[in-house]
Specification:
The complex is a heterodimer.
Chain A: H1 12-15, H2 40-55, E1 75-79, E2 88-94, E3 97-103, H3 120-125, H4 132-135, H5 137-141, E4 151-153, E5 161-164, H6 167-176, H7 193-196, H8 202-216, H9 222-228, E6 251-255, H10 262-274, E7 279-281, H11 288-298, E8 300-302, E9 305-307, E10 314-315, E11 322-326, H12 337-350, E12 354-358, E13 371-373, H13 380-393, H14 399-403, H15 407-412, E14 418-419, E15 424-428, E16 431-435, H16 438-441, E17 449-453, E18 456-460, E19 476-479, E20 482-486, H17 487-496, H18 500-507, H19 511-521, E21 528-532, H20 534-537, H21 542-556, E22 565-566, H22 631-639, E23 648-652, H23 656-659, H24 664-670, E24 678-683, E25 695-698, E26 719-721, E27 733-736, E28 739-742, H25 745-756, H26 776-788, H27 801-810, H28 821-828, H29 830-842, E29 844-846, E30 867-868, H30 873-876, E31 911-916, H31 931-936, E32 941-945, H32 946-952, E33 959-964, E34 971-973, E35 979-981, E36 983-989, E37 996-1000, E38 1013-1015, E39 1018-1020, E40 1061-1066
Parallel strand pairs in A: 5-38, 6-7, 6-23, 11-12, 11-21, 12-13, 14-30, 23-24, 24-25, 31-37, 32-36
Antiparallel strand pairs in A: 1-2, 2-3, 4-5, 4-25, 8-9, 10-22, 15-16, 15-20, 17-18, 19-20, 26-29, 27-28, 31-40, 32-37, 33-36, 33-40, 34-35, 38-39
Helix pairs in contact in A: 6-25, 11-21, 13-17, 13-18, 13-19, 13-21, 22-24, 26-28, 26-29, 27-29, 28-29
Chain B: H1 5-18, E1 26-31, H2 40-49, E2 59-65, E3 72-78, H3 87-93, E4 100-102, E5 108-110, H4 112-116, H5 119-128, E6 135-136, H6 151-154, E7 157-159, E8 162-164, E9 175-176, H7 182-185, H8 192-195, E10 202-206, H9 213-220, E11 236-239, H10 253-258
Parallel strand pairs in B: 1-11
Antiparallel strand pairs in B: 1-10, 2-3, 4-5, 6-9, 7-8
The chains are: A alpha/beta, B alpha+beta.
Chain lengths: ~1050, ~260
Amino acid sequence: MAEKDKDFTCKLSEYIEKLPETDITRRTLLKSGALLGGSAILMSQIEGAFKLLRTAEASGGMTAGDYPLAKAESVIYSVCLQCHTACPIKVKILNGVAVKIDGNPYSENMTPNLDYSTPLTKAAKIDAKVCPKGQAGIQSLYDPYRIVKALKRNGPRGSNKWKTISFDKAIDEIVNGGKLFASIGENRHVPGLKEIYVMRDPKLSADMAKDAKAVADGKMKVAGYKSKYTSHLDLLIDPDHPDLGPKNNQLLSMWGRIEHGRIELGKRFMYGGFGSQNLIEHTTICEQSHHIAYKEATNQYEDGKWSGGITHMKPDSYNAEFIIYFGTGFVEANFGPPAMCEKVTDGLASGRLKVAVVDPRMSKSASRAWKWLPIKPSTDAALALAMVRWMVENKRYDAKYLANANKAAAKSGGETTWSNSTHLVKIEKDGPGALLRESDTGLGDKDSFIVIKNGTPTVVKADDDKSAVTGDLDYSGEIKGIKVKTAFTILKEEAFSKSLAEWSEITGIPVKDIEEVTREFTSHGKKAGVEFYRGPVQHTNGYYNAQAIIALNILIGNTDHKGGMSVGGGHWHEYASGKNKGQFNHEKTQPNKLTAFGHKITREGSHYEKSTLFNGYPAKRPWLPFTSNVYQEALPSAADAYPYTIKALWLHMGSPGLAAPAGHTALQILADVNKVPLFFATDIVLGESSMYADYVFPDTAIWERFGNPHSSPDVPLAASKFRQPTITPLTEVVTVYGEKMHCSYEAVVLAIAEKLGLAGFGKDAFGPRWDFTRQEDWYLKNAANFAVGDKEGDSVPEASFDEIKTFTEARKHLKPTVFSMERLEKAVGPDKWKRTITVLNRGGRWANWKNEVTDGKGMLLKTYGKQLNLYAENVAKAKHSLTGKRFSGIAIYEPPKDAAGNVALDMDMPLQLITYKDILGGQSRTLPNNYWMSAILPENYLLINAGTAAKLGFKDGDKARLISLTNTDGKWRLPNHGTKDMVGKVKAVEGMRPDVVAVSWSFGHWGYGASDSFIDGKTIKGDKRRTTGLCPNAAMRVDPVLKNVCMTDPIGGSSSFYDTRVKLVKA
Amino acid sequence: MALNEIVRMHEDLENALKKPESERSWIMVIDTRKCVGDHACAVSCMAENVCPPKTAYRKVFETEFNSFPELDRFFMPTNCQHCDNPPCKKAADKSTKGAIEKRKDGIVVFNYAKLAKSPKAKEAAKKACPYYAIVDDKAGFYTDGTPVLEPYETRDFYEYDKKLNRKRGDTKGSIRKCTFCLHRLESGMLPACVGTCIGRAMYFGDKNDPESLVSELLKKEKTWNLKAGLGTQPRVYYIGYEDRTKISVATPASCIACHQ
């Protein structure tokens, strides 16, 4: 009988693609020591491996049961970072080389996880989950293009011409400045850090900070400030504007990938040490509007202000019966697949769980979905509001839950959370504004709000857990002459502002599908939830899209419920929780620290109206009071000298030139020695942006360093992860504070701190005899705090003799520059050391799995237990800094807009551009540099609907160029580095909306080993395999008003990735 | 929630190792309802076995089915099926006896030294395999042509009962394929593709143990074998489904539609 495989799109020949020729005949003889090829450490590892081979038995035999990687002594547990999920991993080491990575079975990467007390010998044999990126971490660690020595540029910025420089000399030049580039014809004086670090007196900084805030708030006049500090005005950027802060603020530090552990170490350096406000993480090119929406929805009102909101909730997928994934999934991206996926697939296979996926593209998550809703990008609020409309029309919301106006009402109804749905809002001439209060009505006090109960205004104190207050849900009327509506009514009116058919038209989703999904969502009690991530929020309307989605969860009151929305299992605190004196309080112990002050260069967290720069509307550039880490705004603000210029940039593991939408605008600024006079970077390679630096210091790679990232709320058990070095770092050895250590971010922090004498570093930095001269002095205390626990009596057991033996055996390949028992013990003290070893032996601390993650009453074990805000008063009271118009406190639908509030959709372009991450590719590090993975996916594509392809005249595999309104020739312009095409192969699929083109991330490199670099006069050939595909970011819309940045969400701060319309032309 | 599947399979493995090799019968079960096409299995295998560049013992195929918007995407992981009637062995035996052997525990073993010396056996075996399972080891490394030949490529690794090294040429010129991670099994570890599977689609164990998880799955679910009609008697069993709206119902119906 003949066997036949039907010819669908299953293509064997495409599975392992032929990679572009690597030109194998042209061997690279690398004499320069800058890259790994010259690294003495690596050569000895290779030689060591060879020597072992030559002494191996000739038969090449192996005794059964003698597989070395099955032994506990071959394992060091650590934490991945190929993406932000930061999975706990088990790194297996052979002859000092990290050779295999798997998941840590003590952690959330196995469900259920092993009991913490499980012997190390047993855990060594049980491999938990990691995704392919985690597996391929070996290839990021041993990347041939890693830099291992400090470099100084030897040509124009971006020309990729370098010379190696001693670490000490580089630090000296950066700190002291001078005519540092005279040898290449640049005659300018480069400012050193010592010229920027002018405010050095802790008491003076605290006083000037307090009064500068008073000036900004209008409580103190500028003239008064100037006379009070008359002999210190030279410390300020601009004495006429004290709220801009001291000149210290002209050191800008931008962080790409960084996380806890390092974050607080870096903050210690920037704020209390150096005295600069300008520490900007990458969050707005990531998912910030998701976080800000959650924050506003979960802020509590205390002492006259809203604060304490959390940034993230996730469905309890272990118990849920129905989950809607908006613009995200459980297989790719999100936060993150390895821990998440199994809980969902188990539910799908057993029948417990159904999912719906809202995504213009049929993602891998959608491939498991009962319903796939191929939504038009930018319209997520419209879909959510359509769902709200249907729920209200059909009375399928939890009326009892929504009527609860305070904690006591919630408690009496068996809930832990409640909402402000019934709280009354004042309706101003220009729309809903603040919540109704005592000051308006004479009822209650300054901390209480008002609801209507049976027609009567009733005072309610949100956190009152004694007297239950419920309110009427739907109310519109007048109190004391003030027009009021409940928050619910305002949302309802927005939802009803369009018919279902009209919402359907906007979103491209048929009415029938909207109804069916909403019916399903409201058919599972509390065991249903809506989850979202970048898809709905990386838009100019991202914050509102997010609030509309969060409203769905509020309407069924599912927070804290089994199967509903969860805040996660929590964690032990790496910095003192305050409840156990046994924990180190090193984070907060910084004697003589400075008080950094002044508006950040991005003006994030500041109100335009509360600044001395206020000059009516429009402001020169947007002010973003509700958000933080507005990454894309830092460089263009500096370039526009608004609010001020910068003198130095420290770019750490970041690439604004590549990773931000319209990143090419950032490259222009980075290349400009007038806009960025001094530019130094810490990176593991010469990346797309760090190649523009004046100095690059090699950082340690993930598997060579410390850290303690946090888990997402998807993880239902308490989890504290601890990253630790698994091999001797490949970067050069440097000496700081007299200590030999490997070059890294931490070494640069310590070296600058040492040279400038910054507070909080060096001898006695944490107190008498508690030094901070090595990174272990910081990180090990974090591990010790996990070991000791947040509460008295909650410590882990001390490591046994056998466990200590395994600990040292597993680390015997580590050189003294990175590991020493004595040093680690000194960092935590002998009384905590053995317990710390227990934590280090497992790569962190986890709770034991409980089969029931609930309390038996249907609530999750760890609850949020506070108010959820359907209405965010904060946001409603603020004005858009360019239009002067009030924002909305409720979720609304609005189309994409530019910085001046004009609708910005280039409808004469046929397709809308979205990006996505394949599970094989993270934001950086992974594809195409991890060759195992690029064997599976060697390039990315312009993914379009098959029908659309035919209509546009494209066949599968045709090359096409991406063109947009602000990039009409479809190229990256790389200053001093030529151009890079945005050209890729078309891939025609059925799983795509007809009017969308999707390009996966990770490709289109010109740095990271893709181009040739020139070090000490020698050419390091780039690897053509790394040049494949395209990076679409240069097509993303440049804001027409601001001209040197992408479009941005004015409330959440997210950069717009998905609002750009494009066309494809044959290439 | 199926609890402790990984730990359970470890216990099954320990029980199997207590028996002599001839009494074990290794099989693999793949639940495609839970496969999400992430390729962690493929990359884990590449790393574990230091596979030749641009090759993988394990491949995850993918196909679309039907058209926008009511379509499906199927993922189909495969590797050597360790057939009980292996066509590769039959073909190789014609020219080089002993190049390919079948163990009593079910694993099909390639003798790299013999195969490297026998182009006839190699080509015949490759042609005979209906499962795309066999790869060539043409020497060369991923990091050839880059500044550094990296140590994860030139390190010792383990397959079957051998300690090997590609830099030493131990596999050069031979053909290679999935080994069911015999080297790991004998040290009490599941194959490299099993633990890392983020969908938890992978199962492995001893078919001769009626109380093993894999035996339970064979009893409970309607499993299916790839190209069974060829008479190869594969040791990899699949659990399928019809389409994503009925994903909890195990059925080989749609597998059979494509692959009969």
